[in-house]
């Protein structure tokens, strides 16, 4: 936001030299992977002749103060999963399978996938829910993302 705001201040100082309209669009929900779609659906980009975008890159991808005309990104896929089983009594763990332990095993397997930081790829668990308000019930079900 700071880059765009600074650019707009600079353009305002030079507005006598500019022809046309400058429109600033901040993309919401970039981390969710659907922010650009929301911007397009508003219609705000329908009549644009030019659209310039800025995305700050980590220093291991592009060293400061260099920049790239275009950066290739990988596709984005969000996966929702469920562990299905039955709750069981906390004093009898041998009678069931603990969904939290299963989720932990899934996370450990995801962490074993090693991809070069120079390749636009990321695999991680970002959300995990299991259990109820009862502290003496081993959860049989969980959801993960």
Question: Can you give a write-up of this model?
Answer:
By secondary structure, the chain is α+β, with helices and mostly antiparallel strands. It is 23% helix and 9% strand. It has 3 helices and 5 strands, in the order H-H-E-E-H-E-E-E. The protein has a 3-stranded antiparallel sheet with strand order 1-5-3, with helices on one face. It has a two-stranded antiparallel sheet with strand order 2-4. The radius of gyration is 24 Å and the shape is elongated. 6% of the residues are buried.
Helix content: 10-25%
Number of strands: 5
The count of helical stretches stands at 3
Fraction in beta strands? 5-15%
What coarse outline follows from CA principal-axis ratios? elongated
Based on CA atoms alone, the radius of gyration comes out at 24 Å
Low-confidence stretches: none
Order of SSEs: HHEEHEEE
- Give the oligomeric state of the chains in this entry, treating copies of one chain as homo and distinct chains as hetero: single chain
Structural class: alpha+beta
Largest sheet geometry? 3 strands, antiparallel
Question: Residue-averaged pLDDT, rounded?
Answer: 85
CA-to-CA gap between the ends?
Answer: 29 Å
Strand order of the largest sheet: 1-5-3
């Amino acid at each position: 936001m700071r880059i765009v705001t600074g650019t707009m201040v600079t353009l305002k100082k030079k507005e006598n030299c500019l022809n046309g309209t400058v429109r600033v669009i901040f993309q919401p929900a970039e981390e969710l992977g659907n922010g650009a779609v929301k911007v397009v659906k508003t219609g705000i980009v329908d009549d644009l002749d030019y659209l310039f975008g800025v995305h700050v890159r980590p220093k291991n991808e592009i060293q400061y103060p260099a920049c790239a005309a275009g950066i290739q990104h990988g596709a984005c896929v969000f996966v929702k999963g469920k562990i299905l089983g039955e709750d069981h009594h906390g004093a009898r763990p041998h009678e069931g399978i603990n969904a939290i332990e299963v989720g932990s095993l899934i996370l450990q397997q995801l962490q074993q996938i090693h991809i070069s930081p120079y390749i636009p790829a990321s695999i991680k668990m970002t959300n995990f829910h299991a259990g109820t308000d009862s502290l003496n019930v081993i959860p049989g079900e969980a959801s993960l993302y």
